[in-house]
Amino acid sequence: MEEKLGVACSVTLVGGLALAVLAKLGLGKVATFFSNSLITGFTVGASIHVCTSQVRTLLGLRVPRYNGSFKVIRTWVAVLSNIHRTNPATLIVSVISILAVYLVKKFVNERYKARLKVPIPIDLLLVVGATVVSYFAGLHVNYGVSVVKDVPTGVPIPRIPEVTHGLEFVTDAVAIMVVCYAQSVAMAKILALKNNYKVDADQEMFACGVVNIVSSVFSGFVAAGSMSRSLVQEGAGGRTQVASLVAAALVFVVIMVLGPYLYHLPGCVLSAIIVVSLRAMILKILTVRSLWRKSPVDAVVWCVTCVAVVVLDVDIGLLVGVVVSVVLVLVRSQVHIVDVVEEIRVGVSRVWRPKGQYRTQQDMAGTRVAKINGPLFFANAEMVINSIFEKTGVNPINMKQEGELVVEEIVDQNGGTELSVVFSSQSREDVESRSEDTPADVDKVQEVQADRPTPDELSLKKSMLPVRKLILDMSGVTFVDEMGVEALNLLIAEYDSVGIDVYIAAVPTRCLGQLKSAGFVSKHRDIIFVTTEAVFEHLS
């Protein structure tokens, strides 16, 4: 046992040190990847875990504890299988406790909070009252109600854990701490949104690291933000760190002095307080419908995260939620990212809006303005180019394929001389159907060559294109990577090959530096303009 305790304390110490260092490096901002939907889904799932763990205590059942994936489902199966063994006395105490806490908080503290200087501390009163009743009524001895029993007093002697044990499990230590930090910052963000204050992610990470370092010195295990305790405190009216300080002081007094006096406290009373405190969090399930109407993507993140946490456990569920969020971000970066826009004159102002939405739009004949509404990077570069081809109505690749000239080298059967003969696309089938042993028909070659369009015909064909000039509005681009720059070069080259001029407009300053370092600006300096209007002035 001593060795296991040493390993646990070492893992706690190493994990705490890792979190503290990462916080000072500014990596606490990784919490920005936790959207409100992910955080809410995660906390609701964790709340279901906590409530499930309290059910057997509320009913007075003796069912095994499960760990790992599907533990919520397995616990409920065990509870329902043994429901006939419910202790009636425990159930009565649980129901009375739940009703007392709920009714006082809902219909007294909330309704008359303007008149009450201090909310009624129903949790504390219930604990004291239940302990007294349990002692004099002999609930444990006479009715089999489980009680807290012995509460160890005193604080362990501080000592530095063996770091070598923690280094052996450094990967596990970091993984555990990431989950602890995620749970803590998620709870902090939930309460911050509810009470209108901000959360410093780096400070939260550093605090989580320091707490675990101190905990390991006093033979403590991994510590994180407690959802049940946080909600109980918030429900009691605690809003600042003073409330946490008072709560910690009371816990310290209990550990040092009052522990023996809680011997007869029914465990179901504590479970009842926890379940009532989690009620508001679990009821957030009812908000999924309205969230779906507002944002189906956020609703998907919410549901997937919550279900994963409930079914697969807290750590795996959090990972699933983050992965799903990142995947959806990548998917959304490829959808509706390009719009063909037109100018709208509002008084003396000019604005650009998607084509077809307003009747007052104006458009310059033969010119299209395509706006990119997002980043241009490896994940969506190809999609952006194809979308521009589709929405402008001119796909240079298809145009070249339709008028493609097939180059075939024909070997003169007599002299073995290689002749480079150009066939039009209409003659492709004739060329491919000809056997390799069949000599080339020079008259046929000359006839095919005569079908090639003349320069005047090509010029006439280009003048008939719906688009002769394309303006690429990049004001909505957030960043560009190497593949994004290559995509721009490809776009310009493809349109140039069919006689369409491309102009780049409104490149954000943050992206201009990236284009300069990639050599794009020096290569295409003549076609880059500050605004879309500047391009039209240049063309006029």
From TrEMBL:
GO terms for biological process: transmembrane transport. Pfam families: STAS, Sulfate_transp. GO terms for cellular component: membrane. This is STAS domain-containing protein. SUPFAM superfamilies: SpoIIaa-like. The chain crosses the membrane at residues 89-108, 120-138, 173-193, 205-222, 242-262, 269-287, 299-331. PANTHER family: SULFATE TRANSPORTER (PTHR11814). It is found in: Membrane. Keywords: Membrane, Transmembrane, Transmembrane helix. The lineage of its organism: Eukaryota, Metazoa, Spiralia, Lophotrochozoa, Mollusca. InterPro entries: SLC26A/SulP_dom, SLC26A/SulP_fam, STAS_dom, STAS_dom_sf. Residues 357-540 form the STAS domain. It comes from the Eukaryota. It is a multi-pass membrane protein.
